[in-house]
Amino acid sequence: MPMDPTRSNWMHDKTEALASGGMVSSRHPLSAEAGLEILRAGGNAVDAAVAASFAESVVQPAASTIGGGGLFSVRQPDGTAHGINYMWQAPIAASADMFPMEGAPMRGLFGWSGVKDKANEIGGLAAAVPGSVAGLAKASEDFGRLPLAEVMKPAIRLARDGFPMDWYGSLMAGIHLDILKSYPVTAGMLLRDGEFPYRPSMIGPADLHRQRELAETLEAIAVQGAKAFYTGEIAASIVEAVNVNGGVFSLRDLETYEAIGSTPLEVSYRGHRVQGEPSGFTIYAQVLNVLSHLDFSGLAPDSAERLHLFIETFRHCSRDRAKFDPGFGTAEGPWSYLLSTEYSANLARQIEPGRRVDIPATTLEHKEAFRAGESRTVHIAAIDAEGGMASLTETVIGNYGSFVMSDTGVLLNNGMITFAPVPGYSNSIVPGRRPSPFITPLHVTRPDGRSIMTIGSSGGSKIMTSVLQIASYIIDHGMSPQQATSFPRIDFEGDIVVLDSRLSSETVRKLERYGHAVEVRAEELATFEYGNPCVLARDADGTIRGGVNPFQATVAVGYDHA
Predict the structure, then answer these.
(1) Where do the domains of the chain lie?
(2) Among 156, 354, 370, 479, which is most exposed with the fewest C-beta within 10 angstroms?
(3) Strands 517-521 and 496-500, sheet pairing
(4) 194, HSE (Cβ side, Cα atoms, 13 Å)
């Protein structure tokens, strides 16, 4: 229920980070500091983001590892934009009917029903071919300033020397202790004595978590580049680990993997240029196109009237996404029309103020309401003093991915859960297919052409709604980065609208009168009900501002010119 004024309530917020020399944000403070170290050493925004990502793979394996995948967006100081798709892909031996079904609905992360023994969630068959190392190496080579070996030094140091365990990492290990212990290699590398979670600082100093095998793998990548990961001993160890645990990997899966460069798509939203990596940007672009035809003037950002317009816009666009999968790397086919001004104006006309319109469900994921939980995702962003900007969102999908780890310290994703486990859907399994992503970071240029910002989030299926709401808060309502990331948001689970408990009772009642099925939930320190967003912005005068989720350890850190 909405916040009770008759009792004390725990209020969370953070101050906005301010700097002039550069800034990095990341989900774990140590990875943000790793990125900042590289900025101070003369690296650019891309170098900093790559450094932070490799560090995240050490300090937060429940969320992101070098065995995962993601999307990378770059804006160079001259305004030139680039994207890199390094999403995971289905193995060559995969097939649309590779998973035996039990028939009962599975309330899983993506809503797909009934895979026997959760084989697309846990174990070798759940692992997809990882793209993180290829993507990060490509970003470094194409757009970085420093050598990859220099950029990777903080991550290698954290793995070899160890880092003090934090409370959240210890909590995650404790929650998943039984599964971790069922995979001896994984337990041996991620648990204290192979049995217990590493302890955070409470009644004494925190345990140091050292990962010698991962350090050696990172050192090999630093010297040889991505080929050290996708060929040779490391690749062989990954294939063996996956297949011993029931998977279908081959050396060719790894040898033929490539990170794919792209030119970001762009839309105009109220005079702002908004760009995103094309394979995941189509749904974002469509929502923004429709919202641009709606008038928010005079509406408070947390009013039922405004929230209703956003809800209906998202429902209409989600229908199209379900019917016409955006596909990989293109806005061709139906999307060339679905992203047109004509179509977005038509959708906007179908939205009725104060009344929910029935929209037919088109796929399994829209027929059932389910509590999705949070996929273990990381969002990293960096801005340098020259106005370069880089952001990436990457993940191992579920907590600890597939739980399968090679003896070279590579924890594999469970990316096969992102495909429909049965034939006949637009994202059914095809060998070599990459999923249609939902994790796209946005790059925004203000109408003055000089002020820029990057908006992104972790939080699995909640990323899209989180990022779009924050973009609207900043552009439509003039919020600062921290105001926007701290402001209440909503989310969707099937036909249920999930509302932040900080919204007023009046707002909740009005939305119910409009016909929405609502559920009120409080965001807390260990939940991800509304995503885990961050915003970095550079003003025209060179001031860099950082706003991050007040409920999580996510941090923005910067430095000033000497």
Answers:
(1) 263-370+438-559
(2) 354
(3) parallel
(4) 6
Distances (CA, A) of 280 to 251, 284, 290, 325, 329: 28, 8, 17, 10, 8
From the options 3.60.20.40, 3.40.640.10, 3.10.25.10, 3.40.50.2000, give the CATH code of 263-370+438-559: 3.60.20.40
Beta bridge partners of 513: none
Q: Can you read off the two tokens belonging to residue 116?
A: 């026997």
Instruction: Output the six-digit token pair for 55.
Output: 């560090």
Mind listing the pLDDT tens digit for each residue in 84-125?
999 999 999 999 999 998 865 454 445 565 889 999 999 999
pTM exceeding the 0.90 threshold for the entire prediction: yes
Q: Which of 414, 388, 386 is nearest to 400 (CA)?
A: 414
What letters, b where the CB count within 10 A reaches 16 and e where it falls short, cover 217-247?
bbbbbbebbbbbbbeeebbebbbebbbebbb
For 375, the token pair is 């996929």
β-strand partners of 391: 73, 381
In degrees rounded to 5, what are phi and psi of residue 115? Answer: -80, 130
Residue type, 375: S
